[in-house]
Model the fold of this input.
Amino acid sequence: MQELLTDEKSIYLQICEMIETDILRGILLEGERVPSTNELARMYTINPATAAKGVNMLVDEGILYKKRGIGMFVETGAAERIRRRRKQDFKEKKISALLAEAKSLGISRAELIEMIENGGTEK
Done:
């Protein structure tokens, strides 16, 4: 979890996404302790309250759980919940936009499938 923070979106959202990505990659496993808000604050030179906001979002979503006096841990089934939500976001945001743009350009379904299969490169 040593990615760089950007100005593209709120820092707490980036913290949230970085933890989620580490869970998806298997870097953070179910039942494993995640960095504390103070550790995150030191790691990224941010306010601990900002780090806490990102971590608490994950608690609210059932991705992390608190063990009083010990820290935050990855919830059982967290990776699958993250994956399911990200797939839905991908479908709603990226695929819908892709289909709309393809339609406006007159790209047929067959052409679009071919483009995808070729990784967007011309044959």
Summary: The radius of gyration is 19 Å.
